[in-house]
Fold this sequence. Notes:
Helix content is about 20%, strand content about 35%. The protein is α+β, with helices and mostly antiparallel strands. The protein folds into 2 domains: about 5-150 and about 295-305, Roll (Diaminopimelate Epimerase, Chain A, domain 1), CATH 3.10.310.10; about 155-285, Diaminopimelate Epimerase, Chain A, domain 1.
Amino acid sequence: MARTSVKYYVVDAFTESAFKGNPAAVCLLEEDRDEQWLQAVAAEFNLSETCYLTRISDSSTHTPRFRLRWFTPVSELKTFWQVKLCGHATLASAYTLFTTGLVNSNIIEFDTLSGILTAKKGPAVKAPTDVPQIQYGEEHQHCFSVELDFPTVPSTEFNSTEVSAISKALNGAAIIDIKRTTPFDDLLVVLSSAKSVIELQPQIDDIRRCTGEGIIVSGAAPPESGFDFASRCFFPKYGINEDPVTGSAHCALAPYWSQKLGKCDFIAYQASARSGILSLHLDENNQRVLLRGKAVTVMEGTLMV
């Protein structure tokens, strides 16, 4: 029997402008596919993440539930690299379901490798007035944000002789703090300011040789910017030299900056070339982070294989 065609959308997440934020391919599956096919399609799209949605048949009509899987374009050590948590692709998935009429609910549940994740439709996130936003049309039709309910990502002290190597990988940047996230084993490297983060010139080959899976760089932003902190994220070991906007990284950044700034609500700026804006709330009692952002659909089509 021939395979059914697969509808897909490419969505820019954590932005209200096309060609900004972080793009993800969202594929709607009527049946499960094998991992070789999933990985091949992810490589074909060649975006930082491709995600696959399969409706769970016994899910409540009031709270629809979908199986959600994320893949990067590459496989590691001849095994399939399936991402355990991906914020922007989850937001892109929820936005696709909300805007295409595939759900009649303001709440969606996703069954993932990180457990059940919830997405809610909410009011639009307001960007600081000094951040330019290019309007392309769709944004005026769908003026809402998506709120993701994610687990916090704990971080531990980093006691290592490799601080100088990490500084070298960040082109000699002055480091004021380093943490190691668990269980993802990323390094959270704090610089003196958001300006230092923005102006950073990373040495990707050196980052690839550093301990840990990836490096999250962050710094406090000045009050007049309208942001609380800025960040950039580098994951060259997984074929992503710099991730445009990284929702999951903010599950570690929110607890860190909550301790430093004495607050639980943040407006965060990811200072990649594409850039992105996130609104965050840390629920300390339940160890959850609510990530809010907008999205734009830039492409749709059909996979014929």
